[in-house]
Specification:
The complex is a heterodimer of chains A (about 550) and B (about 250). By secondary structure, chain A is an alpha+beta fold. Helix content of chain A is about 25%, strand content about 25%. In chain A, helix 2 packs parallel to helix 8 and helix 8 runs antiparallel to helix 9. The N terminus of chain A is likely disordered. With about 250 residues, chain B is α/β, with parallel strands linked by helices. Chain B folds into two domains: about 200 residues, HUPs (Rossmann fold, 3-Layer(aba) Sandwich); about 30 residues, no CATH class. Chain B is globular. Classes of the chains: A alpha+beta (about 550), B alpha/beta (about 250).
Chain lengths: ~550, ~250
């Protein structure tokens, strides 16, 4: 393996990143190679909060209207919620609108936010900060997204929606400009792609409308936007979050957010710690993938963070019971694609970038976007017109709603932090005070993969030797994610050709699940470890959908 | 060929099991339930037998709570024709109580074969299949790893300690299935859609009297912490000494 750049220099991840394999992600409708073919009215890709809220709203509207609509939801996880991960503190407004007959107490929340604290950390101390106005959580609820998704899925099924878990959508089926449906991933292939005894051919699911609700860094959504040439004012940027659930000896009675240590000053991010129950604590660290130091490792930074007295005080003597990782689209207003609808297709939630970083919220925007899509789709179905012009109603509904209003208000806040934590913090404060009017322009951002990284020899922010009690290796983490992907599965990650050692080491540090390993100067890809966080797809090798049921099995993430 | 398959809803083997506050049952909160893996072999075998015969019916029967309908749907999605749930809030600890209810349901059903998984992965009892055979006065072959059926006769191979046992039996018969018998299929999308429309009866289970009670459950003891003896060749002698003197395994 050649050394691409000398040490002490800079390296740009994009130089080694393969192009998005759109030839695999987009197929012509009617292409050979599929087993069964099924027809539905509406096909939803992804059983997350966006996709399931869309399915529920559509089924409810159709029922009220006396129309019959055949709805199917494809989900790559083996069971509902097993690939869903969030903090999470949830704004209940979308729940209230979707289920007007239910009370807050009926929703799958763990409890209301009673107290909150924001801290600035140094290596040893924690200074309480005044809670920034965007981060006030009075009236919001602590929840596990896995649990929310299970609950929503049961509601959808009870309304007659077909929820197919364990079936990833591998390719978009296109008929000229129109999205006709998807082809699922084959299963039962060996490492070389040869069928095993339990091989199942891919299936084609065709529908009048296909809803892409794949979540963060959706593969099909990316491919469609790329093919259609739909862009956004800024490229989408991402953060990586690593999270653990702990059974603790000491109870926690408030939600805690921290800034500062252990992050280097040129990385954007922070931590969260929420009680699901007094002695069941969710905590995690989120770091923007535009960090400057090539050797930074989010999983290890998170492990180191737990050694701080603030966390240690709660965790010591307890047990880590679950681990997971996920990226978050952080670009906000300027990164939302110019349109999220086209002939026979709409794009929802995280796949459309509907996340507000300053308030750390996305779940209610995802659900609300699904509900708007359902309304637009029903109108389309009834007029038998699934054209781009008709489905653009979905974009209009989102644009004129609180979703885009909220995102517009904080449009530059995350972007301000590209100049580092302290300058960014100051700018964000000014923006908050002026309702986002300062600065009066858009802060331009680069794609994360285009941000040059420093190669400082031996500097590895976050390096820590796991003790197996408070701190854990990546392999420990993958085990606690419930990932039991079969070892003989074909590799689903597309690595660039002639990847230099610097890039290989960068991947090994970046990936929280230990998928990439440098052994004797060679990049080794442990594909079964992958927990579908998609960080690799942002900065390095491309992620493709693989056999259904692979990946993590989150229970309370 | 008419085949009955008796299946059970069990906690997923990857579930982190917790004992409930009463100290003698599982805390089911947040537990994922699956079709007992040994029963998957039974369902698969029934489907293959029916496919080979070119006609027939595969009926799945479960005993358990209302939620076990999901388990039946899984078997229907694999290809079984219809299902029956014998509903009971709790699956009795005494295998005979369950076997009595199942035998009552199976009696007079005209089945050529009645299949069970060799055991349920939650209670490890291996009881209910043989008990049902006894109650129905049918021959029973357990832990079948290979099966041939021709006319009114079957030949089963059983993997026993150190070798293979070949057993001949007349139909109808009760068989319990072992790993290796076949490779269970995954439910296909079409099968999942079709399963929603297949008949599924639910009726109360006529449980027999139970004479056993679970009085306590305890988790296994924590594993003792490992010890790193040293590194490199020099540590080998010390490791051998410890294995000999402390662990006493050499």
């Amino acid at each position: 393996m050649a050394r691409g750049e000398g040490r002490g220099e800079r390296f740009v991840p994009a130089n080694y990143q393969p192009l998005l394999p759109t030839d695999r992600l987009v197929l012509k409708e009617g292409s050979e190679g599929a087993g069964d073919r099924m027809e539905l009215d509406v096909l939803i890709v992804g059983a997350g909060p966006a996709g399931l809220a869309c399915a529920i709203e559509l089924a409810q509207l159709a029922q009220r209207d006396g129309t019959e609509v055949d709805i199917g939801v494809l989900e790559k996880a083996e069971a509902l919620g097993e690939h869903s991960l969030s903090g999470a503190v949830v704004n209940p407004r979308a729940f209230r609108e979707l289920f007007p007959d239910l009370k807050d107490a009926d929703f799958p929340f763990r409890g209301p936010v009673k107290r909150e604290r924001v801290c600035l950390l140094t290596g040893r101390r924690a200074f309480t900060l005044p809670t920034p106005p965007t981060m006030h959580n009075a009236g919001n609820y602590i929840a596990s997204l896995s649990e929310i998704v299970r609950w929503l899925g049961e509601r959808a099924a009870a309304l007659g929606v077909n929820v197919f878990t364990g079936f990833p959508a591998a390719s978009l089926l296109m008929d000229e400009q129109r999205v006709a449906g998807v082809r699922t991933a084959a299963s039962g292939l060996d490492r070389d792609g040869r069928p095993l005894a339990n091989y199942m051919a891919p299936n084609d699911l065709v529908a009048k409308v296909t809803v892409l609700a794949e979540g963060t860094r959706g593969a099909l959504a990316q491919a469609w936007l790329d093919r259609q040439g739909v862009s956004s004012e800024n490229p989408q940027i991402f953060a990586l979050g690593v999270k653990e659930i702990w059974e603790t000896k000491r109870p926690l009675d408030m939600i805690v957010h921290t800034l500062g240590w252990p992050l280097p000053a040129d990385a954007f991010g922070g931590s969260f710690m929420y009680p699901l129950e007094p002695n069941l604590v969710a905590l995690g660290l989120v770091v923007g993938l535009d960090y400057g130091e090539a050797g930074l490792d989010v999983h290890e930074l998170f492990q180191r963070m737990k050694l701080h007295p603030l966390f240690r005080g709660y965790l010591e003597g307890g047990e880590m019971v679950e681990w997971g990782a996920k990226t978050i689209p952080e670009g906000g207003y300027y990164s939302v694609p110019a349109r999220r609808s086209g002939d026979g297709v709409v794009i929802l939630g995280d796949s459309a970038g509907l996340v507000d970083v300053p308030s750390l919220k996305g779940i209610h925007y995802a659900m609300q976007s699904g509900m708007f899509a359902a309304r637009a789709i029903l109108t389309s179905l009834k007029s038998d017109d699934m054209s781009a012009a008709r489905l653009a109603e979905y974009d209009r509904l989102v644009n004129s709603s609180f979703i885009m209003k909220d995102l517009y208000r904080t449009r530059n806040m995350r972007l301000a932090f590209k100049d580092g934590f302290y300058v960014g913090g100051l700018k964000a404060a000014v923006m908050t005070a002026t309702g986002g009017r300062i600065p009066g322009w858009k802060i331009a951002m680069a794609r994360d993969a285009d941000v040059p990284r420093r190669l400082t020899p031996r500097l590895r922010p976050g390096s820590v030797t796991p003790d197996g009690r408070l701190t854990f290796s990546k392999v420990d983490g993958v085990f606690k994610s419930g990932n039991a992907t079969r070892d003989t599965i074909p590799v689903h990650l597309v690595v660039g050709k002639d990847v230099p050692l610097t890039a290989a080491e960068f991947y090994a540090r970046m990936c929280p699940a230990g998928v990439y390993e440098v052994t004797q100067g060679t990049l080794r890809v442990n594909a079964p470890n992958c927990v579908d966080c998609k960080a690799t797809d942002v900065l390095g090798p491309r992620w493709l959908p693989r056999e259904g049921g692979s990946g993590p099995k989150y229970k309370r993430m | 060929m008419k085949i009955a398959v008796c299946i059970k809803r069990v906690p997923d083997s990857e579930t982190r099991v917790k004992i409930a506050a009463d100290g003698k049952s599982l805390d089911e909160a947040g537990v994922k339930f699956i079709l007992n893996p040994y029963d998957e072999f039974a369902v698969e075998e029934a489907l293959q037998r029916k496919e080979q015969a070119g006609s027939g019916e595969v009926v799945v029967i479960a005993l358990g709570p209302a939620a076990a309908q999901e388990t039946i749907r899984t078997a229907l999605a694999m290809g079984a024709d219809r299902g029956t749930l014998l509903q009971a809030d709790r699956i009795p600890a005494d295998g005979l109580a369950a076997a009595t209810a199942l035998a009552a349901e199976l009696k007079g059903g005209g089945y050529d074969l009645i299949l069970f998984g060799k055991m349920a992965i939650d209670d490890y009892n291996h009881q209910v299949g043989p008990m049902v055979a006894e109650l129905l006065d049918l021959p029973c072959v357990t832990t079948v790893a290979h099966l041939e059926i021709e006319g009114g006769k079957g030949v089963a191979e059983r993997e026993i300690e150190g070798g293979l046992e070949v057993v001949e039996f007349p139909l109808p018969a009760v068989l319990t299935t072992d790993k290796g018998l076949n490779e269970p299929r995954y439910p296909a999308l079409k099968g999942i859609m079709a399963a929603k429309k297949k008949p599924l009866d639910v009726k109360p289970a006529a449980l027999g009297a139970g004479r056993m009670e679970v009085v306590a459950m305890t988790p296994p003891p924590d594993r003792k912490e490992g010890k790193i003896v040293g590194e490199g060749g020099a540590a080998v002698a010390e490791l051998v000494r410890l294995l000999r003197e402390e662990a006493k395994v050499l």
